[in-house]
Each structure stands twice: as structure tokens, then as C-alpha cells.
From TrEMBL:
Record-annotated Multidrug resistance protein MdtA-like alpha-helical hairpin domain positions: 112-181
Gene3D superfamilies recorded: 2.40.30.170, 2.40.420.20, 2.40.50.100, Helix hairpin bin (1.10.287.470)
Domain Multidrug resistance protein MdtA-like C-terminal permuted SH3: 307-367
GO molecular-function term, one example from the UniProt record: transmembrane transporter activity
Domain Multidrug resistance protein MdtA-like beta-barrel: 221-299
The entry's keywords: Coiled coil
Pfam families recorded: Beta-barrel_RND, BSH_RND, HH_MFP_RND, RND-MFP_C
Region (Disordered), start-end ranges: 383-404
InterPro entries for the chain: MdtA-like_b-barrel (IPR058626), MdtA-like_BSH (IPR058625), MdtA-like_C (IPR058627), MdtA-like_HH (IPR058624), RND_pump_MFP (IPR006143)
Localization per record: Cell inner membrane
Originating organism: Acinetobacter tandoii DSM 14970 = CIP 107469
Official protein name in the record: Uncharacterized protein
GO cellular component: plasma membrane
Amino acid sequence: MSISRKQFTLSAVLVAILATGGSFMFLHKNADAKATQDTNAQAAVTVDVANVVSQTITDWQEYSGRLEAIDQVDVRPQISGKLIAVHFKDGSLVKKGDLLFTIDPRPFQAELNRAKAQLAAAEAQVTYYTSNLSRNRRLIESNAVAHQELEQAENEARTASANVQAARAAVESARLNLEYTRITAPVSGRISRAEITAGNVVSAGNGAQVLTSIVSVARLYASFDVDEQTYLKYLSDQNNAAQIPVSMGLANEEGFSHTGVISSFDNNLNTTSGTIRVRATFDNPKGSLLPGLYARIRLGGGQPRAAILISPTAIGVDQDKRFVVVVNRKNQTMYREVKLGTVQNGLQIVESGLQAGERIVVNGLQRIRPGDPVTPHQVIMPNSQVSTAQQPQPTENTANSAAG
């Protein structure tokens, strides 16, 4: 009987030990599960996400160029003489016909007077020889003079007439030389400085000095080089070139505030660079644009189309590939390779790899990997004017595809 009580006591102790061990194991498992949950909660980092933007756009190509004057003239003297006056201020705007320089006109006025006197003498000889010829023709009818005298009178009349023409040409030449003493602006525009000052002697001919220069400013060319693909795609039909939208921005401007038209193309493609030179014309009513300024050119082409737009901050680089990180409805990340187009108003065009309404990580790519859980912080797509409420929400199909 005593043995039975001992056995019973031992059995009770064993049962108590087993019960205590089971409770300990249960508590240990619960602790492990809680630690795992805590670890997963800590792994879900907070990242900025934004909805992919879909907008109707016109494709634009951007180039760098320089402004060029449509008219650029070096002002040179057409006669030799002493420069006695400069009539403009350096760097000022002048109109066509404005007086710029004066060369001493006195020698040329004297030459004109001399030429006029010679013309008067030649005209007097014409009168005399013409009268003599008429008299000899009357006398020849009565045989009062010989035919030789008549022929001589005719020759003298013709010579006198030729002398009048030469004298008139001399007068015209002298008058032109006198006009050349007043050097005027051949075109309207902005004038440079006076290279020769009053008191110096200037010379005409092949070695004539440049007195100053004038560049037109009412309109200017913007010259830039277009790549072969763009030329073939948008510009090869040169009959419609004037309808291609083109705009320009200066170095100190953010956008493209100046609009113009395509005016000309070069006659060949540069095989070294694979580009062709294009000129666009821009109005310059205020005269603030100057030849030589750096210009950013934006060239449009094609019909408006729908496009997927994202912020450049959302794009990652994987060797020669570009990718984004998509966040599905379960807040899990997914690697997505994309094909990029050009930049449109600060947003990157995505040609393939994304759909409108999908959510992508726009800030914090370096802190996550594909498949990681995240805590999304919804923001507006950077550089976009579309509000969060206006942005399309992910559809069920889109979410399922992202979840895959």
C-alpha cells in the first residue's frame, strides 16, 4: 500500500513537471512570434510614394545654339579724305540712313564745280558744231562747200556730243563722291564703337579701314544643330517647316519665353557630327537680344499624345538599365524596368514599363529592396502640377499586376 502511495506521488510530480515545461514552451513560442512581428514592423520603412501621372503632351526636343544677326555690315569709306566728324554714340541704336561720319567735303565740292564747268563747255561746243553742221548741209546743196568739209563738220558735231556725255558722267561721279563724304547707316540696328576718330585720314579701295559695324536687332537668327533622327522624323518635309513650333530661352531664363519660326536648313548633313544646321527666326522688338548670346532651343514635333510621366527622383540605375520601384495594394515593393523618353516640364516621360495610376517610390530608393514591405507616405509627384486628389488611383488589375 505504501508503494502505491509513493508511485502516486512520483506520478503527480512528473505530471507537474510536464505541465510546467509545456507552459514554458508555449510562452517561448509566443515570445518568438511577437519578436518576429516586431522585426517585420521595424522592416516596413516609410517611403514617399506618388501616383504615376498621365497627361497629353507634345513631344519636344531641346538643343543649344547661338543668336546671329540677320544683317551684319562693316561700314567702310568709299572715298579717301579727312574724317572731320563722328555723329553717333558707341553702342546706340541707329536707323537706316542716319548720318554716322563726315569726310571733309570741300575737295569734292570743288571737283563737282570743275566737272560742271567742263559740262557747260562741252554743251557750248555741241551748240557751235551743231550750228556749223547745219550751215554746211545747206551749202552743200549749192555746191558752195566740198563734201570733205561736210564730213568734217559731222565728225566735229558727233565728237562734241560725246564730250557732253563724258562731262555729264564726270559731274555725276563728282556728285556721288560728294555724297560719299556723308557716311550713313546702310541698315537699321545696333552700332559698334567708332574705330576711326575725327582728324584721321581714311582711305578707300581694297585696303579701306572699317570705321564701325552695325548688326540688325529687330529680328535675329538662332542657329542650332539637329540630330539626324529628329530631322528625318519632324523636319524632312521642309514645306511644313514654318508650322513646327519652336521656342527659345536665354541663359538667365527658366522657361522658353520667346517663340519663333523655322526659317532655313543647311544644304547638307555634317557626317562627322551626324547633325544638320537649322536656323529659326525670332522677333526682338525691344532690342534686348544680341548676336552671340547663348540660346536654349525647344523644338516641337508630332501630334499631341497621352504619355506617362514620373519624377526623375523615382528612377534608379542598374548598370545600363533604368528601373522604378512599384508599391502594390499590400504595400510591398516590386522592381520594374522602364524605357525612358525625353524630359517634359521637369518630368521624365516613360515610354514603356508603367501604367497610369500605379504607385511608385519617389524618395527613399536607397533604403529598400524589391519585395520589402513599406509604409507608404502618399505625396504629389514631384515637379507635377497635378494634386493627389486629381491623380488616378490604381485599378484592381493594376494592383494585381503590381502584386505579382
